[in-house]
């Protein structure tokens, strides 16, 4: 018995030793697998981040910005464009900005209201506010219920991944609330309000931030003109500019269609209140130039456009330039259609807004930022007077033409003085749309500069 017991004990000990060796081997194997998994996940995360830059170009063949090269390649189809980009040594991998690390004070949700360019300006405001308050911004919700009646989501118009990653060195932006925070919202633990219009950034610091800290989530349900245009800290103005001219990039699909509409000069025609032909001809614009009407329905329709078409036969609209098969995906979405007009207006040789609306202001500022591209800002009041004089015979054509050109010599998108000096605080908040005002700040103008440079 003793021998058997000893033998049995020896066998058990040997089995335990073998079992220990197997366990150690399994542990090593598990450690190798775990390390490999971590490395693979790290590579996957990096590839996903780089995919924001390369994905739309290489995998889909969509160009990411306007250029002569992309315009030339645009006609060759998606596959050819993808191969050209993939093999081109001139396209370095985009280095993402370093994430800004800060103590999160809560979450800011916003619902934009108005048309495309009104919402665009509001998004710039909300990013700057979120950055100043050290909160997390949830990707803004776009207006779906107002006059425009467009169900488009943010990602249907703007490149949402580019928006998030390009600003990550300033503010944390998420596509949706984290699950635990979402559950709080579903239980009613959220504060919803419209902020006061034309407010100073101190209003958000003193009034809105305490609400965010209390409720964790604040929802601003109106965003139009909720932050004053002027007299804000320099970092606020620079960030608004950066969002507008860099972070808010349209989707690759919208940019591709914008490229397909390439051509000569264009004129933004929102409405016709004074004879359009006389004012254009008086500026000696080439009759053979392509004139693109960047607008919806024109008041008076073809009757109003007949004289313009007679003078400029190469008169086009997106409906005439694009194939119905291309346009049908955008046709019932007013904001996406407006995005197409925005891109064409931005890239045109000449931009002539005839209506001083949000699009005219934002495009004007964007074209200044891109290098003072020729933008003719019509002095409509003076033109009415000159046209009346010409029609009555008080002015000859040469006199009329000279007067129009002299009046617009300094209204071609060149740097001009801003009108803020000496204005009362209330007026100062509203003067000069920030979308144009802040373009100078993108070029690192001095804090006290009174000059347009964008």
From TrEMBL:
<dbReference type="GO" id="GO:0016757">
    <property type="term" value="F:glycosyltransferase activity"/>
</dbReference>
<comment type="pathway">
    <text>Glycan metabolism.</text>
</comment>
<dbReference type="GO" id="GO:0005737">
    <property type="term" value="C:cytoplasm"/>
</dbReference>
<comment type="similarity">
    <text>Belongs to the glycosyltransferase GT106 family.</text>
</comment>
<keyword id="KW-0325">Glycoprotein</keyword>
<keyword id="KW-0808">Transferase</keyword>
<keyword id="KW-0119">Carbohydrate metabolism</keyword>
<keyword id="KW-0472">Membrane</keyword>
<dbReference type="GO" id="GO:0016020">
    <property type="term" value="C:membrane"/>
</dbReference>
<dbReference type="Pfam" id="PF10250">
    <property type="entry name" value="O-FucT"/>
</dbReference>
<keyword id="KW-0735">Signal-anchor</keyword>
<keyword id="KW-0294">Fucose metabolism</keyword>
<dbReference type="InterPro" id="IPR019378">
    <property type="entry name" value="GDP-Fuc_O-FucTrfase"/>
</dbReference>
<keyword id="KW-0812">Transmembrane</keyword>
<protein>
    <recommendedName>
        <fullName>O-fucosyltransferase family protein</fullName>
    </recommendedName>
</protein>
<dbReference type="GO" id="GO:0006004">
    <property type="term" value="P:fucose metabolic process"/>
</dbReference>
<keyword id="KW-1133">Transmembrane helix</keyword>
<keyword id="KW-0328">Glycosyltransferase</keyword>
<dbReference type="InterPro" id="IPR024709">
    <property type="entry name" value="FucosylTrfase_pln"/>
</dbReference>
């Amino acid at each position: 018995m003793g021998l058997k017991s000893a033998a049995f004990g020896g066998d058990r000990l040997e089995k335990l030793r073998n079992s220990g060796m197997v366990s150690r081997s399994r542990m090593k194997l598990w450690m190798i697998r775990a390390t490999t998994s971590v490395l693979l996940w790290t590579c996957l995360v990096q590839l996903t981040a780089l995919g924001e830059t390369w994905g739309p170009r290489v995998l889909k063949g969509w160009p990411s910005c306007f250029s002569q090269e992309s315009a030339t390649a645009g006609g060759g189809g998606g596959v050819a464009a993808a191969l050209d980009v993939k093999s081109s040594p001139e396209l370095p991998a985009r280095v993402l900005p370093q994430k800004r690390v800060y103590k999160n004070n809560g979450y800011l949700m916003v619902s934009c209201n108005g048309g495309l360019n009104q919402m665009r300006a509001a998004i710039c405001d909300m990013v700057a506010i979120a950055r100043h308050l050290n909160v997390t911004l949830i990707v803004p919700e776009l207006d779906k219920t107002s006059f425009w009646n467009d169900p488009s989501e943010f990602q249907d118009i703007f490149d949402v991944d580019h928006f998030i990653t390009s600003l990550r060195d300033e503010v944390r932006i998420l596509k949706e609330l984290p699950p635990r925070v979402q559950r709080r919202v579903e239980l009613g633990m959220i504060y919803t309000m419209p902020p006061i219009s034309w407010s100073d950034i101190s209003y958000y610091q003193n009034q809105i931030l305490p609400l965010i800290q209390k409720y964790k989530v604040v929802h601003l349900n109106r965003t139009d003109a909720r932050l004053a245009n002027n007299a804000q800290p320099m970092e606020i103005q620079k960030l608004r500019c950066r969002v507008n001219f860099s972070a808010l990039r349209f989707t690759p699909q919208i940019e591709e269609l914008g490229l397909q509409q390439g051509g000569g000069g264009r004129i933004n025609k929102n409405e016709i209140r004074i004879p359009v032909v006389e004012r254009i001809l008086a500026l000696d614009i080439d009759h053979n130039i392509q004139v693109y009407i960047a607008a919806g329905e024109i008041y008076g329709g073809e009757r109003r456009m007949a004289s313009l078409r007679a003078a400029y036969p190469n008169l086009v609209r997106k409906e005439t330039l694009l194939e119905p098969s291309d346009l049908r995906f955008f046709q019932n979405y007013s904001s996406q259609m407006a995005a197409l007009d925005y891109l064409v207006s931005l890239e045109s040789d000449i931009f002539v807004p005839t209506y001083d609306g949000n699009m005219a202001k934002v495009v004007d500022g964007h074209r200044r930022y891109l290098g003072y591209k020729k933008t003719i800002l019509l002095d409509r009041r003076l033109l009415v007077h000159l046209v009346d004089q010409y029609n009555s015979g008080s002015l000859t054509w040469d006199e009329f033409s000279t007067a129009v050109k002299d009046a617009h010599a300094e209204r071609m998108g060149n740097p001009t003085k801003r009108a803020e000096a000496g204005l009362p605080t209330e007026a100062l908040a509203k003067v000069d749309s920030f979308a144009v005002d802040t373009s100078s700040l993108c070029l690192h103008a001095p804090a006290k500069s009174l000059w347009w440079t964008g």
